[in-house]
Structure formats: structure tokens, C-alpha cells
Amino acid sequence: MAIMKAYWIRNTGTTTELFLRDLPQPQPNAGQMLVRMRATSLNRGDMLARIKRHSAADGRPAGIDGSGEVVSVGANVTDFKPGERVLFRAHACFAEYAVVEPPLAARMPDRLSWEQAAALPAAYITAWEAIVEFGRARAGEWVLLCGVSSGVGVAALQIAKSLGARVIGTSGSAIKLAKLKALGLDVGIEGRGGAFVDAVLQATGGKGVNVAVNLVGGSAFPGCVRVAADFGRVIIVGYVDGEMHPEFDLEAVHGRRLQISGISNTPLTPAQRAASMQGFMRDVYPALELGFIAPLVDRVFDFDELPAAKAYVDTDQFLGKVVVRMP
Question: Do 159 and 226 fall into the same domain?
Fold first, then answer.
């Protein structure tokens, strides 16, 4: 039996840590394919220790997306064949091999490297859900991205701009905001938590934003509600600040007919995950293939440096995506 290296994640009580294991190389069942991993990305949602649904007290496989080569396919797989280069979402991607469901995979654009392709699936599909599926952003509308420098934030910025929307982004780093101007960020607001309300209202002439995407957490949520325009859409993607019980202005939500949505991959059925992939392929993939949108990779680590890559992500110094390349 072939053995492979794989990283698992466990809860230490206050955070999570990655540890290396030797495991049997998986084999695809009918309707699956085996992929040799070439690169994988780090996603904060996969690393969270404080969320019940993400608990890792006993250890679990980690890594939720990546890029690689198809090694073999199970029965009834006709969309892909061995040797093809693919990008995908899957479980247990911090490993030398991963089993992938074909509906959650796509052929890699030729112009992208392994590392660039690995930065796409989780971040850009989530951003598509936030901006297109739930946000329903349209040309000329205002989109607020709280935490714009994250992987999903940068992807959401690119997707919103491709639709013709005007984008306001918040970040605790003026340097990151300045760099994102090159990607089309219209208004950058330096500050953390909810310290953006006055600046957002000023930028929008007091009307507020049509879509507010919260990648920060509870500290930013009341502000997102305050700056949402009539019929605005508030989308909750992450809560890196750990604040789960913020103030909730029921009158504002009711009086302005706001819609509040949460985005998590955890409760989705295989069919729902496949539907999100199809939306990404329809609305975002062509721009990636043509080079109109390109993933922003902050730093690349080697596979044996994965714990160091996680430590780097925990510092919040990165802009875009942190990626790990396989040997």
C-alpha cells in the first residue's frame, strides 16, 4: 500500500495547529478522481478554532482547495482524464494526493501557474457567492468590502469591478489599500472594526451601499447595517475578530428592507456545491482564462513549511492568498 504525507489540524484549546501524518494514499471510488497535488492554498475558514462547526479537537484532515494533475479516475468519470491539469475544491488537500469530485473541478487556464490556480477555488467561489449570488451586485452600485485585503476580499473586489460596480474597501493597513488601488479599488478606508461608517456615507453621498460584504466579523456588522442603503444586501462571510454577538438594529433591517445572508460551505449538499462551481465557471472563469482577472498570491511556501505558512497567515500581514507548493 502506497503511503503519502498529509497534514491534519487539531484544536489546542485556544488556536489550531497543523501536524504531519503518514497515511495510505487514497483511491477514487466511482464518480471520483485521484489528483496528485501540485499546490494548495490556506483558507482561514478551514483554520478556525473558535467556531463549533469547525472544531478540530481530535484532529481532522485539513486543506479545502488546490491544483494538480489527474492520476486516475473512477468508474463513470468522463469529464476528465489522467494527465489533465485541474483546479478544485475538495477535502484533505494538505496532502500529496487528494480525491476530487469532478463537479467541483475545472481545467486550469494555460496562463496560470500551479500556485496561481491553487489560489482560486475557495476564495473566488466564495466571492462569487457574496457578490453575484447573494449580493446581486450590478453596474453602478456601491459595494463595501470589510476586510478587502483577504483572499476572498481581493477576489470580491475583482469580481465586483468586472461587473461595473464601485467598490469601497476597509483594511487596517494603508499600504495594502494603496496596492489594491491598482486592482480598481475606488475608495480605501483605513481602520478596523466598524470605524468606516462616516467615510462610507460620505463617499456615497449619504445614500449608503447596495452590497456590504463582512469578512471581519461582529465588530464590523453594526456598521455594515448602518451604511446599507434601502433594499441593501448584507453578506456575512467571516468572523476573524472572534466577535459573535454584535448589536443588531432590527428597526434598520425592517425599515430599509435589508437582506442579511451568511455564506458557509459547511452545510451545503454536493449538488449545492456543484451549483456554486457552475456559477463561478459561468461568471468568473472566462475572465480568468483571458487574463482580465488574475489571482493575487502574496507568498508561496514549500509543503514542509506548511505550519510556518499558517503562522504567517495568523499574523495578518498577507495581501491576497498564501499558497503552499508540493515537492
Answer: yes
Q: Are residues 50 and 158 in the same domain?
A: no
Q: What is the mean pLDDT of residues 231-260?
A: 95
Q: What is the pLDDT of residue 49?
A: 53
Q: Let me know if residue 48 belongs to a domain.
A: yes
pTM of this prediction?
0.95
The residue written with cell numbers 475545472 in the block is 106
- Whether residue 177 has pLDDT greater than 90: yes
Instruction: Note whether 141 and 160 are within 8 A (CB).
Output: no
Q: Say how many C-beta atoms besides its own lie within 10 A of residue 179's C-beta.
A: 18
**pLDDT, averaged across the chain:** 95
Contacts of 220 (CB under 8 A, 6+ apart): 146, 147, 170, 193, 194, 196, 214, 241
Who wins on pLDDT, 316 or 55? Answer: 316
Residue 283: inside a domain: no
At residue 108's C-alpha, the angle toward residues 312 and 278, to 5°, is: 95
Q: Which residues contact 301 (CB under 8 A, 6 or more apart)?
A: 308, 309, 312, 322, 323, 324, 325
Task: Indicate which CATH number applies to the domain containing 179.
Answer: 3.90.180.10
Residue 21 is assigned to a structural domain of this protein:
yes
- Would you state the cell numbers that stand for residue 146, as one nine-digit string? 470589510
Distance (Å, whole) CA 64 – CA 84: 20
Asked whether residue 167 is assigned to any structural domain, the reply reads: yes
